[in-house]
Amino acid sequence: MEVNEDERIVDKRAASRMGDGDVGDGGSTNEPTPIVSGDPVAEVARLTELADNNYKSWQRTAADFQNFKRRVELERSETARFASAALVINILPVFDDLDRAVATVDAHLAGLTWVQGVVAIHRKFANLLQAMDVKEITSEGEPFDPSKHEAVSQAPGEEGKVLHVVQKGYQLGDRVVRPAMVIVGKAVSS
Questions:
Q1: Which residues, 6+ apart, have CB-to-CB distance to 28 below 8 Å?
Q2: For residues 15 and 9, what is the distance between their CA atoms, to the nearest angstrom?
Q3: What is the model's pTM?
């Protein structure tokens, strides 16, 4: 195969890097771009305005990106919180059952190994909930708070006070995941 000496380099970018300004077909040289209009002051003003517009556009894009990052981080934390809340809601009935089992253990059974195992499991569940920042809502003797309590009945007693807790309530951080079911006092009219 013969190589024709008249062939020109086709890749103009490679030719310009090699320093060959004469690449044929109107190839690029290292000379500055000519001024389009006849007035250099007007051309500088036009290019300055273009640069300002590009800079402002870049600033808007950077701000949008920061907002996007914040929004994604917030969504991730919300998703994690909802997942934790769902897990806690599903664990609480099991913890309630263990709580009732430990509370009703007969005194003469307390020394048995399997009872101690159930108590140990109850303690591990309590530690797990504490590690997840789950706290029991204190209710008995407190004023009735509809954001934390769910009244299931009323009984004679001090008006507006929680007399008895039917089912414990819990909150995850400062968010109530399960309100306490309570019996609220009702003043007896004479």
A1: 12, 16, 21
A2: 7
A3: 0.58
The per-residue pLDDT for range 126-156, each reduced to its tens digit, is: 999 999 889 999 888 899 999 999 999 998 9
Identity (one letter) of the amino acid at 143?
Answer: P
Angle at which helix 113-131 crosses helix 40-103, to 10 degrees, equals 160
- CA dihedral for 9, 13, 15, 16, sign (positive or negative): positive
Strand partners, 143: 161
Angstrom CA distances, 8 to 16, 22, 42, 97, 121, stand at 13, 9, 39, 87, 83
Mapping DSSP onto H, E and C, the string for the chain reads: CCCCCCCCCCCHHHHHHCCCCCCCCCCCCCCCCCCCCCCHHHHHHHHHHHHHHHHHHHHHHHHHHHHHHHHHHHHHHHHHHHHHHHHHHHHHHHHHHHHHHHHCCCHHHCCCHHHHHHHHHHHHHHHHHHHCCEEECCCCCCECCCCCEEEEEEEECCCCEEEEEEECCEEECCEEEECEEEEEEECCCC
